[in-house]
């Protein structure tokens, strides 16, 4: 048998069938070739085995899990319902289901088996069919579908692989109804496993799709498309997707193809059946065929429909007898063998009596060149291999004409006679008979002969006869030793004594069961002659007997044979062999034993007395109590013999306990209290610095703390995030919970920090402003003026980063600035008390300057890369993406909506209220500022951050104090600058832009629009920075 691991083995017997091989398998079952053990003919048996939720174990089908048991049982009922429905259909072009039965915890459908080839294989060999060839396939199938639809049923799986063409007469048959698979797919949502790509319409991909006759019409039209073009149609899901997007249908139009030999009406009918929207398709087979003039299928009648040729007519019992018609020029076979290829398939039997004739314009098969050579050779008069010598045709009738006779019978192997002359045995197909009227007889040694008088054979037409013979009867005399033997047939007791003559038995071979006391039961095969009396003699094999006696303690113990319907009595007589016994009595432990009876057999059996009741009382109530090392199931108050018992006690949320309990002759009540189970409790929180607080217990949260299982209510909060209350389930095996807080964006103008020691930020709204110099006197690098859009909200440091804030970074990371690493060069300072000019001074850095260093002063002597290191550390510490502002962001924030030279207006005399600049503050003797402001700010060197008034956005030191690094590379003007607020990263990136002026610059250099640049690798006592970050949810 095929190597499919789930298949039953070759030779396995199911009901009245023996399995021979595997014909095929799929996601919902396996199909076997089998032999009927009674009648001897072959059948196909389909087994329900949905591999999605069932599997085979020791021959029996089981659901894969308790969860799948319901789906398996539901699908099994659908499978049996489909079998019951299919047995009602009797159509020559539909698969015939003859039986179904249940075994191995599943169900089986029995179908007829014949030789043939699938349309899929034919198209693989031939690529395409002509219109006439295609109609000989689809029109009979359409007629069969009419019967199916009239019964309120659908096929749901029409495709080339499910249409077979019979070897014997080349009529088509539709196999493998997919209704049960579709129902199972709808229930389990496994729609892809029940839809056939290219042949299933869109409604079959949807569990609630609107399915009806139009569903099968789509599939049959798709089969036509394949046979016309040689290509599979595109999948319905792809077609619908394209159409919903107003894109061309991926299905090429047949009407736009060059298809010589195909009528326009036929192609239009195929395209109508392939409409994606079901309402646009023909709603019935009749509507579909009306699109093909001359191809209408007639309404149902009591007689079976023709199998292939649409022009075939049924034989009328009252038809006037006609003279034989000889037509030597007509084809020797009415069914061109262009479809035939040797193969095996599960096909339906052909019922009814009907005539068929070929299209007169169709050439002979061998002229078409479509018929395989092996099919052409020996056609016509040649006898089939294996025909018995007595089945050879009489030359008086056969081999001289062109009339065609097809006969099928149940059972097969029936002798067929015309006017008393044997012409072969069933299944029979003769295409070389003389035309005329004949008395046809069907003869079988075990069945009643059927005589069909007046059968009219016509040249180049098919007379098709299907008949089930009535089995004959006979009598059988049974001579059995011993004389008191009984006889059973099919499990029914016929007689209790022999010899006997049984009358009215089915003729032929039968299987009888014979048995007698003290003899072995046997199954024998007998032959009953039809209309006669046979004699069968048989001798049964004697069986040896012995006696059994049990010495019981206590004497009144009960003895049972679990596998046999026997009542024990002392010295009882038994057939010699091995027996299983159970000895029991209330208050004692039951004993199972095996006894081999041979001759006079005696055994002693002493039961162990049971002790008193055994009870375990546990807190909490409902805890599970199990024995350790014993198969017994604990029950409160159960009777146990004396001894020690090891118990395991467990309850959800408590620590399990294993304990040994002594048990004596008195009732035992053992009491235990379980300790609450403690499990490690932890929560992953984003952001990581969020505060976690229990709301329902008096405990302080600690990651990994131990808590009893249960539900806990917690509150999570972090600065800048919306607080959240969550109930968490804490139990064994549960994964660690994760809680993510939603960012709470500060309102424009709000001040906030991302950590207690982080730089203070001010939230700024998005907006639009004019960037550049808007005064009469401007520098070239401040032009041209342009409108810049700040599209997203961001936050900016309320003031420059201070020495204290920078020190936390340097100490935490062990970081040294460039001025510290290159101490022999140091930092660029003014040294007012010495040289009074800006030069690099060895040893100078942000920790050691020419003026007293205070924590609140802005950090200076940091180059652009030192600043990037600080920003990277701050981002990692807070989880926020810190950066430098762009030039556009900086000027947007500095102006705070003001178009004037300074954010407070144009009056330089007010500058010292808002900024620390070169002014009238008293300087060391011999030094003076060039172009000082006409005011006194009280500071020579950098002032503590935020010492002066803020602008309208609440930002300090946007004018003066220290220059501030920004992100942009240096460009000498705003030509080709972007219109958004992003940093400009083209130009001279060895120098970076700086903004805002400093304590050592004139009023003009402290204007909002003023720009400066500084080498990226150099810092100075005049240059610091402030941080920025985007505000996103």
Q: Give the total of domains.
A: 8
Summarize the main sheet.
6 strands, antiparallel
Sheet with the most strands: spatial strand order: 1-2-3-4-8-7
Q: Under CATH, the topology of the largest domain is which? A: paralog of FGE (formylglycine-generating enzyme)
Shape: elongated
N- to C-terminal distance: 65 Å
Number of helices: 15
- Secondary-structure-derived class: alpha+beta
Overall pLDDT confidence: 85
User: Any idea what the CATH superfamily of the largest domain is called?
Assistant: paralog of FGE (formylglycine-generating enzyme)
The radius of gyration is 50 Å
What level of helicity do the residues show?
10-25%
Report the portion of residues in β strands. 25-35%
**Reported CATH architecture of the largest domain:** Alpha-Beta Complex
CATH class of the largest domain: Alpha Beta
- Pick out the low-confidence regions: 188-193, 296-395
Number of strands: 60
Describe the structure.
The protein has 1033 residues and is an alpha+beta fold. The protein folds into 8 domains: 100 residues, Phosphorylase Kinase, domain 1, CATH 3.30.200; 175 residues, Transferase(Phosphotransferase) domain 1 (Transferase(Phosphotransferase), domain 1, Orthogonal Bundle); 122 residues, no CATH class; 67 residues, Carboxypeptidase-like, regulatory domain (Immunoglobulin-like, Sandwich); 65 residues, Sandwich (Immunoglobulin-like), CATH 2.60.40.1120; 61 residues, Carboxypeptidase-like, regulatory domain (Immunoglobulin-like, Sandwich), CATH 2.60.40; 62 residues, no CATH class; 280 residues, Alpha-Beta Complex (paralog of FGE (formylglycine-generating enzyme)), CATH 3.90.1580. Helices cover 15% and strands 32% of the residues. It has 15 helices and 60 strands. The strands form 19 sheets. It has a 6-stranded antiparallel β-sheet with strand order 1-2-3-4-8-7, with helices on one face. Strand 5 and strand 6 form a beta hairpin. Helix 1 packs antiparallel against helix 4. About 10% of the residues have low confidence.
């Amino acid at each position: 048998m095929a190597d499919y691991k789930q298949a039953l083995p070759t030779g396995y017997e199911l009901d009245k069938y023996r399995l021979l091989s595997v014909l095929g398998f799929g996601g919902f079952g396996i199909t076997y070739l089998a032999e009927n053990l009674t009648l001897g003919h072959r059948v196909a048996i389909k087994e329900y085995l949905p591999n999605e939720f069932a599997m085979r174990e020791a021959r029996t089908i089981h659901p894969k899990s308790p969860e799948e048991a319901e789906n398996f049982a539901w699908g099994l009922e659908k499978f049996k319902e489909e079998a019951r429905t299919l047995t009602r259909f009797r159509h020559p072009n539909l698969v015939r289901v003859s039986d179904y039965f249940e075994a191995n915890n599943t169900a089986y459908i029995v179908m007829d088996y014949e030789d043939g080839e699938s349309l899929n294989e034919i198209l693989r060999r031939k690529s395409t069919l002509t219109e006439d060839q295609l109609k000989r396939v689809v029109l009979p199938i359409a007629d069969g579908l009419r019967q199916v639809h009239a019964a309120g049923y659908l096929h749901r799986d029409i495709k080339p692989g499910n249409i077979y063409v019979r070897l014997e007469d080349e009529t088509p048959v539709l196999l493998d109804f997919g209704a049960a698979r579709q129902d199972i797919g709808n229930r389990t949502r496994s729609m892809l496993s029940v839809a056939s790509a290219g042949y299933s319409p869109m409604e079959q991909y949807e569990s609630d799709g609107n399915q009806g006759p139009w569903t099968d019409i789509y599939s049959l039209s798709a089969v036509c498309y394949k046979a016309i073009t040689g290509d599979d149609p595109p999948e319905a899901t792809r077609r619908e997707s394209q159409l919903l997007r107003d894109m061309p249908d991926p299905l090429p139009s047949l009407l736009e193809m060059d298809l010589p030999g195909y009528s326009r009406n036929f192609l239009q009918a195929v395209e109508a059946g392939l409409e994606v929207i079901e309402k646009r398709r023909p709603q019935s087979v009749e509507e579909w065929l009306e699109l093909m003039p001359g191809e209408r299928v007639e309404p149902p009648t009591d007689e079976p429909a023709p199998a292939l040729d649409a022009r075939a007519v049924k034989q009328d019992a009252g038809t006037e007898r006609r003279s034989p018609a000889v037509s030597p020029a007509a084809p020797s076979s009415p069914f061109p063998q262009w479809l035939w290829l040797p193969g095996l398939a599960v096909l339906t039997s052909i019922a009814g009596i009907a005539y068929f004739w070929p299209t007169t314009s169709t050439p002979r098969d061998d002229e078409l060149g479509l018929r395989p050579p092996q099919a052409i050779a020996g056609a016509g008069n040649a006898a089939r291999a294996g025909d018995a010598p007595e089945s050879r045709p009489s030359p008086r009738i056969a081999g001289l004409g062109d009339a065609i006779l097809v006969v099928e019978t149940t059972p097969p192997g029936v002798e067929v006679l015309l006017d008393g002359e044997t012409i072969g045995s069933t299944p029979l197909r003769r295409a070389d008979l003389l035309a005329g009227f004949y008395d046809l007889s069907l003869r079988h040694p075990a069945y009643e002969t059927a005589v069909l008088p007046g059968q009219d054979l016509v040249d180049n037409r098919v007379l098709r006869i299907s008949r089930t013979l009535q089995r004959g009867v006979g009598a059988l005399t049974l001579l059995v030793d011993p004389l008191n033997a009984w006889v059973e047939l099919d499990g029914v007791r016929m007689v209790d004594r022999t010899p006997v003559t049984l009358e009215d038995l089915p003729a032929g071979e039968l299987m009888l069961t014979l048995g007698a006391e003290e003899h072995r039961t046997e199954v024998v095969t007998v032959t009953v002659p039809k209309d006669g009396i046979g004699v069968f003699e048989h001798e049964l094999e004697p069986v040896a007997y012995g006696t059994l006696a049990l010495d019981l303690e206590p004497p009144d113990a009960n003895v049972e044979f679990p596998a046999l319907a026997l009542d024990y009595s002392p010295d009882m007589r038994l057939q010699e062999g091995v027996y299983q016994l159970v000895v029991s009595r209330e208050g004692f432990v039951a004993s199972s034993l095996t006894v081999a009876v041979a001759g006079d057999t005696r055994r002693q059996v002493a039961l162990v007395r049971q002790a008193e009741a055994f009870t375990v009382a546990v807190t909490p109530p409902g805890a599970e109590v199990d024995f350790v090392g014993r198969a017994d199931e604990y029950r409160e108050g159960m009777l146990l013999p004396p001894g020690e018992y090891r118990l395991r006690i467990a309850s959800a949320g408590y620590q399990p306990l294993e304990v040994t309990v002594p048990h004596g002759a008195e009732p035992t009540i053992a009491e235990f209290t379980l300790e609450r189970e403690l499990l490690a409790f932890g929560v992953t929180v984003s952001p990581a610095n969020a505060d976690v607080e229990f709301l329902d217990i008096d405990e302080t949260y600690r990651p990994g703390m131990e808590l009893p299982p249960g539900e806990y209510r917690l509150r999570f909060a972090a600065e800048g995030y919306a607080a959240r209350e969550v109930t968490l389930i804490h139990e064994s095996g549960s994964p660690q919970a994760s809680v993510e807080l939603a960012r709470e964006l500060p309102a424009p103008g709000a001040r906030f920090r991302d950590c207690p020691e982080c730089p203070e930020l001010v939230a700024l709204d998005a907006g639009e402003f004019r960037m550049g110099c808007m005064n009469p006197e401007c520098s070239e690098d401040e032009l041209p003026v342009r409108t810049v859009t700040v599209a997203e909200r961001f936050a900016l440091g309320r003031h420059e980063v201070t020495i204290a804030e920078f020190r936390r970074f340097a100490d935490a990371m062990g970081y040294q600035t460039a001025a510290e690493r290159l101490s022999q060069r140091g930092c660029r300072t003014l040294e007012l008390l010495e040289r009074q000019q800006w030069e690099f001074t060895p040893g100078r850095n942000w920790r050691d300057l020419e003026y007293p260093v205070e924590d609140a002063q802005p950090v200076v002597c940091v180059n652009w890369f030192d600043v990037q290191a600080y920003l990277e550390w701050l981002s990692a510490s807070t989880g926020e993406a810190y950066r430098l502002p762009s030039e556009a962001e900086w000027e947007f924030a500095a102006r705070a909506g003001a178009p004037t030279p300074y954010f407070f207006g144009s009056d330089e005399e007010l500058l010292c209220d808002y900024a620390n600049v070169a002014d009238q503050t008293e300087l060391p003797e011999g030094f003076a500022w060039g172009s000082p402001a006409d005011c006194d700010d009280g500071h020579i060197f950098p002032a503590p951050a935020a010492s002066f008034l803020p602008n309208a956005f609440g930002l300090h030191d946007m004018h003066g104090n220290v220059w501030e690094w920004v992100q942009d590379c240096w460009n000498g003007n705003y030509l080709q600058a972007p219109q958004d607020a992003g940093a400009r990263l083209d130009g001279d990136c060895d120098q970076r832009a700086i903004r805002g002026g400093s304590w050592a610059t004139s009023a003009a250099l402290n204007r909002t629009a003023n720009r400066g640049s500084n080498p990226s690798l150099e810092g100075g006592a005049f240059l610091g920075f402030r941080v920025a970050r985007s505000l996103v949810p």
